[in-house]
Design a protein that fits this description.
Distance between the termini: 68 Å
Helix content: 40-55%
Number of strands: 20
Number of helices: 18
Shape: globular
Strand content: 5-15%
Length: 508
């Protein structure tokens, strides 16, 4: 009897502990790709669209763009472009015919089909920070980023409801040699998450290794006909596509994997400060890369990409959150819809060195224009500080919760039973309240669990904790409760073997 009582008590305690754990650490409820029902905003009438289009075509026809790669130059010559040295001049009819085969929307397959997404038209996805050499760690200290940090951000992305694409380079791990870096990152992205990923672009070999690794996991035939990754390639504004980027573009386009073809624009420095002039330039640059991709493989999915920042006239440093880049993003969105292609941009970044008021303003001021402009692939969606040189654990957490707010807002109005609500109003009458109605219980306002809406006295009694501290505590909680998604043993074994062989080769 005593033994039965003991077992019963253990069962009760175990059940209570499980319930407490479930309430404290609930399983994530993953958000689907955002299907925008608010916006987009079109600033330009038809004449304005034609003006920017004609300006972009004039740049490509008259000034031309450099493709600093002999293979690309030979491809352009075969296609009939005017090639003189490294300078390529592309007629508008040729360019428009080439980009006509770029899909306006595509499915983005995840290792777990439940995490798969759609990109293009009204669908938007949030992707991780990319490439920062520093982190603001769990103690709030700034230091060089390490592979452990990349692993942590992959884990946090897996546990996040709103971070849809963990990426491939959430931070640049300074403790891993460059020739091996892509192996460690792609392996981690594939094993620590089961969401869609991005591809490595450090070199042609890094791109080839990435494609081989996703073929191990997804199967060669599946990869050939489905998007399983996207690669971020930067044009050197003004008007230069370099060899490293073009080599990676050829690898990914041939494998039917999209590239985010992205001029890196410092308005007022590398591009005109004029929104319309700057957009004409970056449109010309991105479309030229997109057109070249179609010479490699007709119908390969591609993304018109931009990374737009202002420049501080005081220091020359990049400046986030100012109005002009926001306007430029609205214009880019309208032009992408004119060309019928998906588009990518950057957001949620700041020049601030802490998750402070400036960081909050900059972050919000960069996100609103890109969603109102209808961006489809939104990179750097969480964590950036210091002009994109650092990723903060605290800000990353706070930003991903803000992404849930943006997702709710841009999902638009939901269907409502107005007759039932009128019945509630009639039943409550003057001077009553709606806290106990079925509708209130079943449709609570979206709540950010880290925002503090308590009284000052309660906030002070609980330690007067700042957003930075609360964010770091939440990051620790997420990492402590991380659950690694399963991967079939044969896939994991083949992936580990591939990485081990390549690691040994690049160490030699």
């Amino acid at each position: 009897m005593t033994e039965l009582k003991t077992r019963s008590l253990r069962s009760v305690r175990g059940g209570r502990a499980a319930r407490v754990k479930a309430r404290t650490n609930p399983a994530p409820v993953y958000l689907p790709a955002l299907n925008r029902r608010v916006g987009p905003i079109d600033l330009l009438g038809p004449e304005g669209v034609d003006r920017i289009h004609n300006a972009a075509m004039t740049i490509l026809e008259t000034t031309g763009i450099e493709f600093r790669d002999p293979v690309a130059l030979a491809g352009w010559k075969r296609a009939g472009a005017d090639v003189r040295g490294a300078r390529v001049r592309i007629g508008r009819d040729m360019l428009m015919e080439l980009i006509s085969s770029v899909p306006s929307e595509w499915a983005y397959a995840a290792r777990n089909p439940e995490r798969s997404l759609r990109v293009g038209n009204r669908h938007s996805v949030f992707a991780n920070a990319y490439g920062a050499p520093f982190v603001y760690d769990l103690e709030g200290k700034r230091r060089p980023s390490r592979l452990e940090d990349a692993h942590n951000f992959f884990k946090m992305s897996q546990m996040s409801q709103s971070m849809m694409v963990p990426g491939i380079l959430p931070v640049e791990p300074q403790d891993v040699p460059v020739p091996q870096r892509h192996l460690e990152l792609v392996h981690a992205a594939l094993t620590l998450t089961d969401k869609p990923i991005k591809g490595a672009v450090q070199s042609e070999q890094a791109a080839r290794d990435t494609v081989e690794m996703v073929r191990i996991v997804f199967g060669r035939e599946f990869v050939d006909s489905n998007v399983v990754l996207a690669a971020l390639l930067n044009c050197n504004t003004p008007l230069v596509w370099d060899e490293t980027m073009l080599q990676s573009l050829r690898v990914y386009a041939a494998a039917n994997q999209p590239c985010l073809l992205s001029p890196f624009v410092l308005a007022g420095a590398s591009a005109p400060a004029s929104p319309q002039g700057g957009v004409a330039l970056l449109i010309a640059e991105s479309l030229a890369g997109m057109a070249y991709s179609q010479i490699i493989r007709r119908g390969a999915p591609m993304v018109l990409g931009v990374a737009i920042m202002g420049v501080s006239m005081k220091t020359g440093a990049p400046m986030m959150g100012s109005p002009e880049p926001g306007l430029m993003n609205l214009l880019v969105g309208q032009m992408a819809r004119f060309y019928g292609v998906p588009w990518r941009t950057c957001t949620m970044w700041t020049g601030s060195k802490s998750p402070d008021m400036q960081a909050g303003f900059d972050t919000a001021n960069t996100m609103w224009p890109v969603l109102l402009g209808g961006a489809n692939y939104i990179v750097h969606s969480a964590g950036f500080l210091e002009g994109a040189l650092g990723v903060s654990y605290a800000k990353w957490v706070q930003d991903t919760l803000q992404l849930e707010n943006f997702h709710r807002f841009f999902s638009g109005l939901q269907a409502e039973n107005l007759d039932a609500l009128l019945a509630d109003i009639e039943a409550i009458g003057p001077g009553g309240h709606f806290l106990g109605t079925d509708h209130t219980r079943e449709n609570p306002m979206h709540m950010n669990p880290l925002q503090n809406n308590d009284s000052f006295e309660q906030w002070e009694a609980e330690g007067a904790r700042t957003a930075d501290l609360v964010g770091r505590e939440e990051a620790r909680r997420i990492l402590d409760t991380y659950v690694q998604p399963p991967m079939p043993g044969d896939q994991r074994g083949a992936l580990d073997e591939f990485v081990a062989k390549k690691r040994a080769l690049y160490q030699a």
